[in-house]
Amino acid sequence: MKKQIIIALALAITSFSFAQKKELKSADKAIKGNNFAEAKAALNQAESLLSAMDAKTKDKFYYLKGQAFYANGGGTMEDYDKAIENLAQVKTSYPAEIAKLKQDIANSLLTKGNKAYEAKDYSTASQYFEKSYNVTEKDTVFLYYAAATAVNVKEYDRALVLYEKLKALGYTGIAKQYFAIDKKTQKEEAFPNKQMRDISVKTKTHIKPFEKTTESKKPEIVKNIALIYVSQGNNEKALEAMKDARAETPDDVNLLLSEANVHFKMGNTEKFKELLQEATKMDPKNPELQYNLGVISADSGESDEAKAYYEKAIELDPEYINAYINLSALILGKEESIIEEMNGLGSSAADDKRYEELRNKRQDLYREAVPFLTKALEIDPESINAAKTLMNIYSILGETDKYKEMKEMVDAIEAGAN
Fold first, then answer.
1. Where would I find the H helices in 249-348?
2. Are 395 and 365 in contact (CB under 8 A)?
3. Burial 22-33 (b: 16+ CB within 10 A, else e)
């Protein structure tokens, strides 16, 4: 009886082994014939026998399944994921074949990514570039491309993860490029590698070989990390990231301004002003910086300082309309204390005299503001704020003709806006 059982089990094992080999052989043949659907069907049949396979047969099963899902470059993005998952299950067999297959998969993903990029489908391109890196984890430049293209479509959360990974990997993107001068055109030509460049020089089609080193991408990476945190409203992390970014590129005035804006959002007006002043030293001919310093000075009650900044902005850009409007606002802001005193006066002769003095002082302020508002209206005839303010000033000054002229202009601007 025992011998019969042993024989029966032996027959069963032989049957399983035969079935395994048959299905794997069918899958292998189908793959070689580019019939990947048939290969998957055979592998699905073999999968039910997986628990009975020995280690070597399992390796072959997973290797074939990886090939089937890759489909010689014809698989979907999800198929590529399954191909990599199955190849990862191979324990000891096919090391050279798997390395080549992974490189083929990475190259195929890169090709698809480039096509998506050329079609301006940056979101899809970014995913392909990331997957291409993940397959081999060698070509870090593809991870950089993935991050950069994610930024193009404002996928900031995803881009942030990729940039943080690049930062952790210490990626710089610094590379050596190989050049030589084309003898016929006398123009420099880039070569993909040193060997090809040297062959061209040796065959005398090119002369004067030389190299260039690309700039580091690290400043861009840490800067974008900081700016993404700013866009997310994560101020504390933004400032922390900006510290790293500014250490990399201390002369980047835009990064300095981004840091200043974070402080402004956080209510740190003194730090905001300090950074703006630092920025004006780096970029002294930037009217916007002068204007912003004027705004912050005006908000702090430093009228004389604000006036100087606005005037500097106009000196740098005579068409800077907001500087003219804000200068007029500074002047007209002085009338508040005059009106308050006028309203507090009594009816005595002395009060009447003082009232007249204050009225004249107030009108002088209006006349002082008129040239700035007029200039603003010259720069932008559709400036409703400048037109309305001038209309009200002429009304108070009793200049009826100018009042009517400005009222017509205001009515025209408002009619055009509706």
1. 253-265, 269-282, 287-299, 303-316, 321-332, 335-343
2. no
3. ebbebbbebbee
pLDDT at 258: 80
Residue 188 φ then ψ, to 5°: -75, 145
For the four alpha carbons of 59, 62, 68 and 74, in that order, the dihedral sign comes to negative
338: tokens are 């005059």
Q: What is the DSSP letter of 52?
A: G
Question: Tens of pLDDT along 102-116?
Answer: 898 888 988 999 999
Torsion of CA 332, 334, 340, 343, to 10 degrees: -50
Residues near 257 by Cβ (< 8 Å), separated by ≥ 6?
275, 276, 279, 289
Angle, CA of 276, 279 and 283, to the nearest 5°: 135
Residue with tokens 């930024």, as numbered in its chain: 151
Q: What is the 3-state secondary structure (H, E, C) of 355-383?
A: HHHHHHHHHHHHHHHHHHHHHHHHHCCCC
d(CA 324, CA 311): 8
Q: At 353, give phi and psi (nearest 5°).
A: -65, -45
Distances (CA, A) of 80 to 125, 222, 319, 362: 15, 31, 57, 77
Entry field: residues in the chain: 418
Amino acid residing at 147: A
Identify the H or E element spanning 242. helix 235-248
CA atoms within 13 A on the CB side of 310: 23
DSSP string, 126-183: HHHHHHHHHHHS--HHHHHHHHHHHHHTT-HHHHHHHHHHHHHHT-----EEEEEEET
pLDDT digits (tens, 9 = 90+) for 194-251: 999 999 999 999 999 999 998 888 888 888 898 899 888 888 888 888 888 888 888 8
φ, ψ dihedrals at 213, nearest 5°: -110, 125
